[in-house]
Automatic annotation (TrEMBL):
SMART domains xref list: HATPase_c
One Gene Ontology molecular-function label: ATP binding
Name listed for the protein in its UniProt record: Histidine kinase
Organism listed in the record: Salipiger profundus
Keyword ATP-binding included in the entry's annotation: yes
Domain Histidine kinase: 630-769
Keywords carried by this UniProt record: ATP-binding, Kinase, Nucleotide-binding, Phosphoprotein, Plasmid, Transferase, Two-component regulatory system
Entry's Gene Ontology BP terms: phosphorelay signal transduction system
Origin superkingdom: Bacteria
Keyword Nucleotide-binding in record: yes
């Protein structure tokens, strides 16, 4: 609700019978709102919705007097078909000659200002005005309703001046004023309530008006005088965090050029055995094709539609060249079993869902301008290719070679042209394309392109699963055997004595393996302690007496010497200063002893519910004495509201984080120059059963000699060298870490250096159930 309106606006409200005197006090040329009515949510706020004006301004070629009289004011003109391009080279959109009547839907009054430069180089301006209410009067005859044209007006120039006052629009308005061409339309007495929610919806709608993959032939800026902070350019937000992207370019020689980007898997972690399978020895599935994420190939229409009739191919050719871009997104995090079977790349499902809510669906763009309502959410044409029906008829898993993609997981753009694809004609109401036989063939082509993406993804995942089964056959047999043993013990009466004894033997063996695993926990901890001691042996060697010796020596020295006598002497020759330095070394050694003893406390060797927050904060305190002097910052980040516990041995958790922090410590000290030294640990709930943990530092990252990041988890692999090039590492640290995570049925993955981090590790551990102790 505005605090004041002009006298003219006050008069207009009164002429409409809205009684503005009940809300505003008119004094001179201004009417001021009474204070008690200033609430924007009050019923009185609806009073001034009619005073809102909508202005649409462009810096295009503009329209002259002839264009207004012979085209703009005449229903169903074909001028856009006869002259398909504007003077500025952009393909004209629309060909029915009725689009201008949308102005009537927005508001009752319309003023159009336009400016052109004629062949003589002279600027010509005009103003066209219409009152749409005249068409609604009883007995009105169309030929008797007129609009007004005034030549030589300054309306367009005035609108450019107003636009120039908006931040971000000044250079565009100045350019349009210099060129002297363009059009502005002002709609008043609007028919809708333009609330903040309506503006947000408009921004989203305008965001998909042009295809995100193309260079825009025009830019859109949305400004609201009532809320200028929300004013900005409208952009199509392209989410490049896809799993698959397929580009299909239909050409005039009966061929389709495909470009496929595989972004779902970590290609460095694909098993070598995968490419030994028969299905993976042909292009584009060979190991060489996976060395780059992008593959390109060409197929003919006959290859894509074997056995189709000549009539089908004739209609396909008549459609003409067009392009299709498809993006596929998973929306659910993989399960623990899937994470072991497939080396999935990490992603943020919530970010994907939010993007697909706005930009999802497969949309058609004609000459870089959206054809409604294809692909629009909450519309009957959202799934205009019936992908949902295909999925319902065949709910196969992605590992099946006939897997169909769900419509909610795919976004796409289909780029056509009014000139190149003239057989695809808009309906007269501008709501879609006339469904001719050519349009149905057009749909078949796009569905076949989608199938190309489906077949590629399912073929890769199917062969990955089969490879996993072969490499883990023993585990699968063991799992099935244990399951069978439990079933037999649950119903012993249904089995013979020999079978029952065999089932009991399997159960006893399983318990023995659990006990051995617990023993290995202690062995891993001792190995970790050994790596710490080896790495810091030079500091431990400085300890040659008990802590406190330096205070005793200082006290004895003070009996014979006064420390004040050494005030002006270099500290290197000051015995009291030397003793203080020695005391600092003793404290450092004591810290290491405390660290080693705390790691093997008996309480840490018992399995319990470990509170990750308190445990890591305690670990940070232990390491602080070593990190702070080297200016290394350890930052702990927990998900808001995170309160999960891990059922684990504390000594195992120590093995993981001590190895990681130790590696970062040595990398910073030995392999990094100036700049901040940071270690970041992120803890979040990955699923109902798993805690996700991300460890990062900004050090030098994995050494270049390591070709595959997963190699760092192998036994005896180390890149630590002394100055003479001799190996100094134990090759146990990361092997222990991976063993610990694997023993808890978790997953772990290392990453190479990027602009955001030097070293990064992601792993998961099980969340303890409330009843577990």
């Amino acid at each position: 609700m505005p605090e004041e309106i002009s006298k003219d606006e006050f008069g207009r409200l009164k002429s409409w019978g809205l009684s503005p005197e009940n809300h505003f006090d008119l004094v001179g040329e201004t009417a001021k709102l009474r204070p008690c009515l200033a609430d924007e949510h009050s019923p009185e706020a609806k009073l001034v919705q009619h005073l809102v004006t909508i202005s649409v301004i462009d810096d295009g070629a503009g329209m002259g007097d002839d264009a207004i009289r012979d085209a703009w004011m005449v229903i169903g003109t074909a001028n856009k078909e006869l002259e398909s391009s504007s003077k500025l080279g952009r393909t004209r959109t629309g060909a029915k000659g009725i689009g201008r009547f949308a102005l009537d839907r927005l508001g009752a009054q319309c003023q159009l200002h336009s400016s052109i430069v004629n062949e003589a180089g002279e600027s010509q301006t005009l103003t066209w005005m219409v009152d749409w209410n005249k068409f609604e009067k009883d007995g009105a005859v169309l030929d008797e309703v007129t609009a007004t044209i005034e030549l030589g007006t300054s309306g367009f120039k005035d609108d450019l001046t107003s636009a120039a006052s908006v931040q971000g629009l000044e250079p565009h308005a100045r350019k349009a004023a210099k060129e002297g061409t363009g059009t502005s339309i002002t709609i008043s007495e609007v028919r809708d309530d333009w609330s903040s929610d309506t503006i947000k919806k408009l921004r989203r709608t305008l965001g998909v008006l042009a295809p995100p993959d193309e260079q825009r032939s025009f830019n859109i800026y949305l400004h609201d005088d009532r809320d200028p902070n929300q004013s900005s350019g409208v952009a199509s937000d392209v989410l490049e965090d896809f799993d698959y992207k397929l580009t299909a370019q239909v050409r005039g020689n009966d061929t389709v050029e495909f470009t496929l980007v595989r972004n779902e898997l970590n290609h460095d972690e694909l098993p070598k055995a995968l490419f030994m399978r028969k299905d993976m020895k042909k292009e584009p599935f060979t190991r060489e094709s996976f060395s780059d994420r992008t593959v390109s190939y060409v197929k003919s229409l006959e290859e894509l539609f074997p056995g189709e009739s000549e009539l089908f191919f004739s209609r396909a050719r008549s459609i003409g060249p067009f392009d299709v871009v498809l993006r596929f997104f998973k929306l659910q995090m993989p399960s623990k079993a899937e994470d072991r079977q497939y080396p999935y790349r990490s992603f943020q499902p919530q970010r994907r869902r939010e993007w697909l809510d706005i930009f999802g669906g497969i949309r058609i763009y004609r000459d870089n301008f959206g054809v409604r309502p294809y692909g629009e959410p909450n519309s009957g044409a959202y799934d205009w290719l019936s992908l949902g029906q295909r999925r319902a008829a065949n709910p196969a898993a992605p590992t099946r070679l006939n897997w169909p993609v769900p419509p909610q997981n795919i976004a796409g753009t289909v780029n056509i042209s009014r000139i190149e694809n003239s057989v695809l004609v808009d309906q007269s109401n501008r709501e879609g394309i006339i469904e001719t036989e050519e349009f149905r063939v057009f749909q078949s082509l796009i569905l076949r392109f989608i199938n190309e993406l489906e077949r590629d993804r399912s073929r890769v995942l199917y062969n990955l699963l089969e490879t996993f089964k072969v490499e883990n056959a023993d585990k699968q047999v063991l799992s099935e055997g244990l399951k069978l043993a439990r079933e037999i013990e649950a119903k012993p009466e249904s089995s013979s004595d020999d079978v029952r004894k065999l089932a009991q033997t399997v159960t006893v063996q399983e318990n023995l393996l659990k006990e051995q695993a617990e023993d290995q926990v202690i062995l891993r901890s001792l190995a970790t302690l050994g790596t710490v001691m080896v790495s810091f042996a030079h500091e431990m060697g400085q300890l040659n007496t008990l802590a406190g010796r330096n205070q005793q020596l200082a006290a004895l020295l003070a009996r014979h010497l006064d420390e004040k006598d050494f005030a002006k002497i270099n500290e290197a020759l000051n015995p009291f200063a030397i003793l203080r330095d020695m005391e600092a070394s003793d404290r450092k050694a004591a810290q290491w002893f405390n660290f080693a003893l705390s790691a093997v406390r008996s309480g840490r060797r018992r399995r319990s519910n470990v509170d990750m927050r308190s445990h890591l904060e305690e670990l940070k305190v232990v390491w602080d004495g070593f990190l702070r002097p080297r200016e290394i910052e350890l930052d702990l980040n927990f998900e808001d509201g995170f309160a999960a516990e891990i059922l684990a041995f504390e000594i195992d958790i120590d093995s993981i984080f001590n190895n990681l922090i130790l590696n970062s410590f040595e990398a910073f000290v030995d392999g990094m120059g100036g700049g901040e030294r940071q270690i970041r640990i992120f803890i979040y709930t990955k699923s109902k059963k798993e805690v996700g943990i991300v460890y990062e530092d900004n050090g030098p990252g994995i050494h270049n000699s390591i070709k595959d990041p997963s190699e760092i988890f192998e036994f005896n692999v180390t890149t630590k060298k002394d100055r003479d090039g001799k190996g100094t590492g134990t090759g146990l640290g990361m092997w222990i870490l991976e063993s610990v995570v694997r023993s808890y049925d978790g997953t772990v993955r290392a990453y190479r250096k990027t602009e955001d981090f030097g070293f990064r590790l992601e792993f998961s551990l099980p969340i303890a159930k409330k009843s577990e102790v």
